[in-house]
Amino acid sequence: MASPQAILFAKAISRTASWSLSFYPQPLLNIRRRSTTGTTPSFPFINTLGFISYLASTLAFYASPLIRHQYAVRNPSAPHPAVQFNDVVFALHAVALSALTWSMFAPRIWGFEQGAAQRVGTVIWGIAIGCVLVVIMVTIFVALGPGAGYDAQGWAWIDVVYAVSYLKLLITVIKYMPQVYTNYRRKSTVGWSIEQIMLDLIGGVLSVVQLVIDSLLEGDWSGVTGNPVKLGLGYVSVIFDVIFILQRYVFYRQPTREAKDGEVEVGERSRLLGGREDER
Known about the structure:
The chain has helices spanning 4-21, 25-33, 42-63, 65-74, 85-103, 107-110, 122-144, 157-175, 177-186, 194-218, 222-225, 228-251, 257-261. It is mainly alpha-helical. Helix 3 (42-63) runs antiparallel to helix 8 and helix 10 packs antiparallel against helix 12. The radius of gyration is 20 Å and the shape is globular.
């Protein structure tokens, strides 16, 4: 019978593989169609920022002696962060693929067909800038506070890392909304890869399972409470994946003729998506 460590390793590899593979179907679909119609640039844009923050917080928990020490002080019963090397590899890969997908909305680079007014929405830009400003403010507050961030019992550098990681959680909550709305307005999921959603769903489920197993092996659930972002990411991803699956196989099984032909791009009247109403 396999040991708990072997099971943990298998779960970690499976989760990382599923989530990593989920980044490929959309850019491959864009390349095959020579078009980005049916998708919104808000998703890869904010996704790139989110995974940059995830990479930063993951690296801190995995490799920073200071952050690991402060984590151990705050979580004495489970002093080791539930972050594995595969989490770091996944984060690096996610940043690269998210940025690649975002770049496909630049006609000068790829020359792909685009819908009218297909651009990152003003609200998404505002959220991105606001998130960065909040992290900067927390950093200044910690640096100028008592102990200059080195007292783990007070405001410490680990709180900056938590701020960065919560940024990723916030982005995960909002990043899918523009695409959900785009599919709703078009009454179609043409152009939006369902394969990436299936792989993301598998990765989300396995992410939660891995975190639970990590905590069980540590013998304490503070491994979960000490890393709420990783748990939250799994749950949020699963919820939105289910929404996309329903849109694809239940609500919009028969897309409109225009959507099939790729001639209609959603009128992005919503500030969440950005851009002006399509004039047809």
